Amino acid sequence: MENFKSFGGKLVVPLLPGFTAITGPNGSGKSNITDAILFVLGPRSSKEIRAGKLTDLIFNGGKKRKNPAKYCKVSLIFDNSDRKMPIDTDEVKLTRLVKRAPVKGNKDNYYSYFYINGKPASFNDFTNLLTYARISGEKYNLVKQGDITSIIETSSIERRKIIDDIAGISNFDADIEKAEREREQVEDNIKRINIILGEINKQINSLKKDRDEAFRYKELQEELYSLKSKIAVKKKLDIKAQISEIQKQIETYEKEKKRLEEKREEIANKYKKIKDELTKIEEKVTTTDGEESSKIKKDIESLRTEIVKIEEKINYSKAEITDLSEEKKELENTLQKLLNNISKIKKNRSDILKNIESTEKNLGEKEKELTEIKDIISNSDKNTLELSRELATLRDKYNEMQNKLHSLNLEKDRLEKNLESIDTQIAELEESKRTYEFELKDIEWQVNEIRKEKKDVKTKKEKLEKELFDKKRKEAELAEQFKDLENILRGLQREYAHLKAECEAIESIEKGYNAAVREILAARDSRELRGVHGTVAELAKVDKKYEVAIRVAGGQRLQAIIVDNDDVAAQAIAYLKRKKIGRATFLPLNKMISGKPRGKALLAVRDEKALGFAIDLIDFKKEYYNAFWYVFGDTVIVEDLDTARKLMGGVRLVDLDGDLIESTGAITGGRIDKKNMSPLFSNFDRSKLDELSNKIREVVNSLDLTNDELTRIREEIRKIEEDLKKFNSLAEDPGKFEDLEIRRKEFEGKLTVINKKLGDINRERKEEKQKLIEIEREIEKCIEEISELNRLKEEKARLLFKFTGKELADKAKELEEEVLTSKEKLMKLNSEKETINRQIEMLDERKKELEEKIKKTMETMEEHRKNIKNLKKEYEKNKEKVETLLRAESQISSKIQEYTRKRDELYKKSITYENELDKIATRIESYVDLISRANYRLPTLETALKELEEETKRYGHHIDEKEDLPDLDVLNEKVKLTEENMKELEPVNMRALEEYDHQVKRKEKLEEDVKHLKEQKKKLINLVKEITKKKRDRFYEVFEEINNNFKEIYSRLSEGGEAELTLENPEDPFSAGLTIKAKPRGKKILNLNALSGGEKTIASLALIFALQNYDPSPFYVLDEVDMFLDSINAEAVSRMIKENSNHAQFIVVTLRRPTLKEADHVYGVTLREDGVSQMIGNIDLESIKEKIGATPTP
Questions:
Q1: pLDDT band at residue 388, thresholds of 50, 70 and 90?
Q2: What is the pLDDT of residues 104-145, one digit of tens each?
Q3: Which of 418, 417, 406, 408 is nearest to 830 (CA)?
Q4: CB neighbours of 800 closer than 8 A, spacing ≥ 6?
Q5: What domains are defined for the chain?
Q6: Nearest to 217 by CA among 835, 1024, 1186, 982
Q7: How far is CA 18 from CA 142, 626, 1141, in A?
């Protein structure tokens, strides 16, 4: 571990097999070792490892808070040679790291990291790996400080839950909860289907009458179709007879037509011979007259063709003249612009020439003046002359090198610009290359993606289509059920509205009651008083005929309230007294006494005008009889007052108008306003309204559930359809691969071209670069030479100045600079002049070219004009020739007259034969017409026959044509009678047949669904029972084994004591808790709370060891579990740990010497003065007392 809690820096703790003990003074940090183990094993809460938050685990720098760490890290290395962890290495290293992160965006101010064998992992990877190896940081294989106390202090139910966790009861509970949820869904489905079934039964009963009528209507319809089929057959036989007659006529006409055609052929042969002779005569006429005439015609045709050609040539020349004229204008415009440009450039050249002339003149004057000064200087002495010559030579060389440098710089600039252009081209090509390479990679990626997608498209698509079919079928079923439920709801709401109206009418009745009665009824409706049935008037159902009489007979007693018993009556009276609201009469059903009619009443009721006892004319529940007897007794209802007067005396009588005769003889009567009389009796049953309200709630609930399920199913369908669209788009786009392949080839081709261009241009760049390097070298060399020449020149000039006067020397120097400036200016002006001259030369050439084109265009136009003039002359000549030939053609020779006479004779004979042929043709045509007319009638008859056959098929009745059928009149009369019978039944709901069958099938299906759902519900109930039994059996199995372990371990730890785990409710262990009973050696049996501190610890440790033995772990960590034990018990515990360490690894933090003595390996932890924990190994047990200080003496 590194920087963990009080351990600063790195520390390696070798946890060897067997029993390892860690000791040290209180506050030394020894328990931080167990905290480090817990830290890696991953409890989510930092409190489990004794820290407020995870950053508290990071070393804080000790007492002085010097150099606090920014992170802490702990690694646990597990021996995995048996491959208990699913990693193929002999050792598995799990590391957890927490790092401070004082960042605003990180609310926790830390980051937590996990590693497995040095590779990053997640918390889930840790927990999955540890779970696989049956290692946990939250079970009893790690016993922390306070766990012993928690077992003692926890409630019995929490203690039982320890067994629940080990037995996996939560899994059983989850299964039970799931089964219960499914059962509730099944019950909801059953309720929904039962509601729909109730409505379907109503519909079936309603449809039955319509169905019977529809059946009768269908029978009549079948009878009608049979009759119409017979009529169609009769008509069909008639049409067949007509067709047969027409066919016979056609056969006769065909025979006569054939005879005439044979005669026509005979005459036609004779006619042909005459025509042949006539043709020969015509040929002789043509031969005689043909040669001369043919030549003239040929010449005319030739001349006419030539005339047309001449016209076309004239038109062509005219068009060319027009085009050339436009072209000439454009050339002249261009020439004018060019001349303007030349004029401007020449003016510029003139300015430059003047400037050159002025500069040359100035330069000549300066050079002349300089020469004169130099002559003066040179004539001064011999040395000066020599120096002047040398200086002049140096200046010439200097000027020469300057010119050379200028040329080299120009070349360098050219090369640099060229290189810059080449670099730009290279950059553009490189960018294009990168783009094409990216496109190729993208195409490759797309191809791979499409292949991946298409690989499983077929399977996935088929699966989705099947799923879609099932979902749509389910949707259709639910939609139909939803529609049914909506219809049912509407029906129930209408019925509820009707009943509600009745209820409101009753409320208006109740308003006629006195205040006390109204208050009691209100208390009943609000459930404040229970056992109240209602008033006599409210519970009675009376025919309208007797309502007035019964109302008078009951009187005020109709407001008496029927209750279950006298106790309810007493409660109601107390209620009225408490509320201080009047008085009421109560009729307790358990105390009411029945009576018998008196003799006079029995005699009166037998009278023919007596209607019966009042109590017998009222409809009420049998249980209310005694209460109703109290109200009505043996009162007799009669028709009128006369009858009552006849029967009066010793009997109570009421007539239908409400006149009352008491048994004492008192008569009460008068007018009763029946129209304005408020209703008192009602046939309304309040329970129906409640029942209907409950039904509406059930239907609304079923509607909501069905709607939710429909919404869910439709959302699933939408998602499936979207997925199918994606699959279809893949399947429907087979050309996508081809498109991508075309694009790939295109980009590969472009890439090849670019690579070639890049190769060529890079070579060119290399060559240009080499030239630039060479030029730069020459420039450097030239600059060096100029510099040297300048140095020599200055040196010579200084020497010269020594031998000459200062004024002359200064003047010479000044003139030299002016000469040099003038020469440079002159050089620049000459360069500009040359450039302008070249421009003028080019423009002059262009000018000559344009002038030449204009000239040629004008010449061509003139040629076309001359051509048009010549063509027009030729046109006139040819026209005259044609007219001459046409006159010659009109003259005919007399040679053909003889042949003409013979031709006329033959022609007359041919006319005679033609007339005969026409007559025969006319007769043939008449027969053809007769045949045509007959044939024309046939399709109509055949169509009618076909329609009748189709009509017969449509009616669906096969009628034998050989059958002796009645006349059409008889059949039509029967059709009329059948149609009248059908009209009597109309309108007929023919859909009732189909709807009735549909509803019956739906009923059968829904009943089958209910049956299936009930079976499913039964299975789910049985499943819950089965899981509950398994849960109970599993609990007891675990409990018994842990209890046996506990008994044995406690006996060993307490050296002969007894203990057991007991369930507070063995019949239902999950409703109560678990208690620990112990009998320490030599003492009586006590509950855990009655034991001493040490005895409680032994009992708790025994339970922990029992749990560990049941669910063994490869290692155990115990933190100061022996803290409250005396020496004897501490030795017993340490011996047991020693024994158990033979098959598991034990790491124990302890201060007790007996425990340390049993350990195989002992490590000590001390706290340095700076507050940092330090660990030492192989401790001398004799020195433990000094090192741990306050350790209790064994």
A1: low
A2: 555 567 778 888 998 888 778 888 888 888 777 666 778 876
A3: 406
A4: 377, 384, 387, 388, 391, 809
A5: 512-681 (3.30.70.1620)
A6: 982
A7: 16, 92, 5
